[in-house]
Write a structure and sequence with these properties.
Layout (H helix, E strand, L loop, with lengths): L9 H13 L4 H13 L3 H11 L14 H8 L3 H13 L1
Helix pairs in contact: 1-2
């Protein structure tokens, strides 16, 4: 086991001691777990941080899925402009 010496201000030290006492654990145990959580790289931890920060975004879902024929009809004719743009890009 390694030992770490860090300089922190008095107020942070006091708050850490209070938190450790509230949780019924040692200051060393609290700081070790906080540091371990800070460097954890598991997806569950990342998901949790996104959830608690309010940064998770849910894209709007269509109320009724669009059927295949409707999608084909909506996209009809869009292939030609794309093909022309690609040809122009290749020629330049």
């Amino acid at each position: 086991m390694k030992q770490l010496i860090a300089r922190i201000d008095d107020d942070l030290h006091r708050r850490l001691k209070e938190r450790a006492a509230e949780q019924g654990r040692s200051l060393n145990d609290l700081i070790s777990s906080v540091l371990a959580a800070a460097v954890a790289d598991d997806s569950a931890s990342i998901r949790h941080r996104i959830e608690t920060s309010g940064l998770r975004v849910f894209p709007p879902q269509p109320s009724v899925p669009v059927d295949r024929s409707t999608v084909i009809e909506r996209l009809r004719g869009s292939g030609a402009p794309v093909s022309e743009a690609l040809s122009a890009e290749r020629d330049s």
